[in-house]
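#lab-general

N.A. 3:47 PM
ok so I finally got the sequence cleaned up, no stray characters, all 361 residues accounted for. can someone with queue access submit it? mine expired

B.Y. 3:52 PM
send it over

N.A. 3:53 PM
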Amino acid sequence: MSTTRDAATQIPAALTARIQALASHSAPAPKLSEAQESDLIERIKAELVRQNAVMIVHFYVDAALQKLADETGGRVSDSLDMAAFGAAHPAETLVVCGVRFMGETAKILSPQKRVLMPTLNAECSLDLGCPADEFTAFCDAYPDRTVVVYANTSAAVKARADWVVTSSNALQIVGHLKEQGEKIIWAPDRHLGRYIQEQTGADMLLWQADCVVHNEFAGEALIDLKRQHPDAAVLVHPESPKAVVELADVVGSTSQLIRAAHDLPNEELIVATDNGIFYKMQQAVPHKTLIEAPTGDGSHCVSCAHCPWMAMNGLQAVYDALVSPEGHEILVHESVRVKAVQSLDRMLAFSRAQGLVAARQ
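B.Y. 4:20 PM
back already:
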């Protein structure tokens, strides 16, 4: 990003090209036979017990991993609850299935624990789209603003922030800051930032980055799909473009969308978020029909409604991480961690006070 003005007005073409190239070249976890899956599941269960380990899994990863986490006393959730669960759980080892910033967050909050991931190459386009050096320079140019960053960022970016937020608590936290008269720097997701700005009226300077999954949902195509399913409710994650958000019946985080699917009377639901959510959402509403929201014309999408880096998580990789942790362990330099934990602790304390996560026992 060549200037601080650029950072608030556009995404550099070279950075976009790099992110899309990384996404296109990521390799999904290999398909396994039923016998291979069954064998790996039993081996993983044994290792979890032997190593006093617990699985913490995001809604967007493969259904087999979500099922295994449920069966072994782990957690399947969104990034806010994943962070809180990992910090509170007594396990010595946390196996975080998702993308790298989630593993870093777990390590920041639980430095005494070993944090493993199926692959350290599972990136996030929002993290990649907010390089720490450029973001620090951007913040330094506006010293009168409170720095609020989305959880989908590196440990180094969190260390520069005053607050970390997730899509579950961003509206409440930004609304609180507005009430305090704070002016805000927001990073990195431009769509979520715009949505929060519109909902709260806060004075926000928006960093420009987006999610390769949610950015591809398309308003015109969604209108056509709604015509085909006139009685369907539309559930949208706020990382989606404005044209898609404006068509939503419910806008919310992954956990909020699953609750809405259960609470709404509609028998058909059009869902504009990563299709990995369908496993848990369908469990919540087994009698309802879930319909994937369209991504443009469907022929040139980078993600096609599923994060290519989330797809790298698989049973074999989880087992490999447990038995050969070298190359799977998340490490965060202590000088970065002690700064980053302040913004994360501030988020968790606020969220507990507001009842957004359970109070620490």
